[in-house]
Specification:
Elements: E1 6-16, E2 19-28, H1 30-33, E3 36-42, E4 52-58, E5 64-73, E6 79-88, E7 108-118, E8 122-132, E9 136-138, E10 149-151, E11 154-164
Length: 166
């Protein structure tokens, strides 16, 4: 699967020799990439032998706009501390298209990490991301074939990395 096209505009400012701030505005074009899922099946054998079933599953993905803000502080040559937040202005999946099969993605992220550089080529980073989204719901339909669904998504992602610069 190929990621969708995105347009990003960002600015950064080195406020002091040890402090930098950044801001990004991103528009990601999910709607064209994940508009509708189309499936075709041909029966082999049985009562429906040779007949085709064509199905369209409307996913209802939106294009999303997100804002990201971050800061980086390096009190000395060995330590660097980073923190940031991002918020998607709209939900990726429209409420009336929400499905347990195709869950929504998180809209909000908080990120913090610390890096320690020892010697000149070795860096160790420890960090964590916390992500969440407001509840998304599908009210169901009138014929009771699609039940109402309500979903929330919380995510905690710890990160440990080691980098060697050659």
């Amino acid at each position: 699967m190929q990621l969708p096209a995105a347009f990003v505009v960002g600015v950064s400012h080195q406020a002091t020799p040890s402090l930098a701030v950044v801001a990004d505005l991103r528009r990601t074009y999910w709607k064209n990439m994940l508009g509708d899922a189309r499936f075709s099946y041909r029966a082999e054998g049985g009562l429906f032998n040779g007949q085709a079933l064509n199905a369209v599953l409307p996913l209802g993905f939106n294009n999303i706009t997100s804002v990201t803000l971050g800061t980086e502080w390096s009190p000395n040559d060995q330590w660097t501390f980073r923190g940031g937040a991002s918020h998607a202005v709209q939900q990726l999946v429209k409420d009336n298209n929400f499905s347990g099969t195709f869950p929504t993605l998180t809209r909000n992220h908080l990120v913090a990490n610390a890096s320690y550089l020892w010697q000149s080529q070795h860096e160790f980073t420890l960090g964590c991301t916390y992500a969440w989204t407001p509840p998304v719901h599908n009210p169901g339909n009138d014929i009771a074939s699609i039940p109402p669904i309500k979903g929330r998504n919380y995510q905690v992602t710890p990160v440990i990395s080691y980098r060697v610069a050659l």
